[in-house]
Design a protein that fits this description.
about 400 residues; alpha/beta; 5-stranded mixed sheet; about 20% strand; globular; disordered N terminus; disordered C terminus
């Protein structure tokens, strides 16, 4: 028997399974007959693909809730009642853990937040304890965990390399360590990449193959989607625009340099400026509260932060020429018209042709959604390997 006659049936089966998944993700719950009709696959072939996906735990089948009389129609849907995935966000001040179905919808009632511990061992212990409580839900299979983490990450080894804002992860591999403790697959994704995935599936980037994501929350990070693929660099460390020097003799940065963009152009930088003004430490949440209550004037601090943020936006546009640039951060909630003002300032600093072709909008997705999206991608591609350059296409558009 020739090699092609052995390989081809397996290849065709996987293609059919992927087509069935695409159909259900695009159209929602469907009967088996509807799957065959909408996917363009013959009924016997579609049924075989469905059975494989049911065995893999990616689909589940149940009665349609809208069936009021007669024999209820059995509907196939992405597993959400008997299966879950977890998403862990590691950040400077707090960590968040959430569960979701394979449809990507977050279970807000099963969300946990805890202060980021002082040591890596405590981080693992606390995260594992909270995850075990979610895993122990009766009748629900936990298929994996996505982990959003800041800083430089070696994508080949899934290991933190340098995190100025969460240094306890330096040289550590939380995905591997949590997988050993929990007995499930765990995947680490850089937080800017997580935001890209979140916007790709849950925000305004659905169907967009070329866009950039500027994260200016705790620090300044950049994710770039080019031709439908994340631009990661040779080892997954691309996008660290926050550590470009903008003030040669500026403030010390956690990376060891001085005057990095993220020391002056993010939520945390604004909070530090307000802290100096008040003579006490405040975070971005308290800054937002103080501004809303009118208890402090932030004109000078906002002007300073937004000027440098506009420089960062212009740099992204000039370097990567994205069709859309998403900006993720909290400070724009302080004042109406603040975001359009930053966009206008960026226009003055960017190359006119590139700026004219770029749509600049506020991001809607979250790092929790990105962590969930990342593990769903890993799980679906492990069962139905990617056969075409269509990454991050396995979640249902909303």
């Amino acid at each position: 028997m020739s090699q092609s006659s052995v390989v081809q049936p397996s290849l065709l089966s996987r293609m059919n399974e992927r087509q069935v998944l695409r159909t259900i993700q695009a159209r929602g719950p469907l009967s088996r007959a509807e799957v065959a009709r909408h996917s363009g696959i013959s009924a016997p072939t579609a049924s075989k693909a469905v059975e494989a996906l049911l065995r893999a735990g990616l689909l589940e089948e149940g009665d349609a809730p809208e069936a009021m009389r007669g024999r209820p129609a059995r509907k196939l849907r992405l597993a959400s009642e008997r299966a879950q995935v977890l998403g862990l966000v590691i950040d400077a001040d707090a960590c968040r853990l959430v569960s979701a179905g394979l449809d990507g919808l977050l279970h807000e009632a099963r969300t946990v937040s805890f202060p980021t511990p002082d040591t890596y061992e405590a981080l693992l212990q606390t995260a594992a304890e909270h995850a075990e409580r979610l895993i122990d839900r009766g009748g629900v299979s936990t298929l994996g965990m996505g982990i959003s983490m800041p800083g430089l990450i070696d994508g080949r080894e899934q290991r933190g390399v340098l995190s100025p804002n969460v240094p306890l992860t330096n040289g550590r591999a939380p995905g591997r360590d949590l997988a050993e403790r929990l007995g499930i697959e765990c995947l680490v994704v850089q937080e800017s990449h997580a935001l890209c995935l979140a916007e790709r599936h849950f925000g305004e980037a659905r169907g967009i193959d070329d866009f950039a994501m500027l994260d200016m929350a705790t620090g300044v990070g950049l994710g770039v989607m080019c031709g439908g693929r994340l631009l990661k660099g040779c080892s997954g460390r691309a996008g660290e625009i926050g550590h470009i020097t903008v003030e040669p003799d500026g403030r010390p940065c956690g990376c060891g340099n001085r005057g990095c963009l993220e020391t002056v152009a993010c939520d945390a930088a604004l909070a530090r400026a307000v802290s100096r003004k008040l003579g006490r430490a405040v975070g971005i949440e308290e800054v937002l509260h103080l501004a809303e209550a009118g208890e402090v004037s932030l004109d000078e601090e906002l002007e300073w932060t937004c000027r440098y943020l506009a420089i960062g936006i212009a740099a992204v546009i000039n370097l990567f020429n994205p069709s859309t640039l998403f900006v993720h951060g909290r400070l724009f909630a302080i004042r109406e018209g603040l975001f359009p003002g930053v966009v206008e300032e960026a226009r003055k600093r960017a190359l006119p042709p590139s700026f004219a072709e770029c749509r600049i909008v506020q991001a809607r997705g979250s790092k929790r959604q990105g962590a969930i999206a990342a593990i769903i991608e890993r799980l679906t591609n492990s069962v139905v390997p990617e056969l075409a350059p269509e990454p991050y296409s396995m979640l249902q558009a909303r």
